[in-house]
Specification:
Blueprint (H helix, E strand, L loop, with lengths): L15 H9 L20 H8 L12 E5 L20 E5 L1 H17 L1
Antiparallel strand pairs: 1-2
Helix pairs in contact: 2-3
Length: about 110
């Protein structure tokens, strides 16, 4: 079974064709809005906006974060935080610089698009 994240794919860039079809559907009152989110970052946002803005995309979602080492001092072997092995003692934090970078690209795209 494949986990679907956005546009029936693992990420927005992989599901652009489905998202484009959804955005092209005639609006019906009461329908939820399309909010692409998986895999959007400073490397992918420009392409996403170039492909979907012309079809009415008005907003995107991203976590804008990264894994950082947790501050937990006592790390008992075999007892962790329940995450994967590579991030067992790390925590996910939103990074304001990453958010600002994506926002800047989105703003530039809106001006030039």
């Amino acid at each position: 079974m494949t986990l679907s994240c956005s546009g029936h794919s693992g990420s927005v860039p992989e599901g652009l064709h489905v998202l484009r079809e959804l955005l092209q559907r005639p609006e019906r009152s009461g329908e939820p809005s399309i909010l692409p989110g998986g895999g959007i970052n400073s490397e992918t946002v420009r392409d996403v906006l170039n492909h979907l803005s012309q079809y009415g995309l008005k907003e995107i979602h991203l976590s804008g974060g990264r894994w950082v080492d947790g501050r937990m001092v006592h790390r008992r072997a075999g007892m962790g935080m329940g995450a994967s092995e590579e991030s067992e003692w790390k925590v996910w934090l939103t990074d304001g610089d990453l958010i600002r970078k994506v926002r800047g690209i989105a703003d530039d795209s809106a001006i030039s698009g």
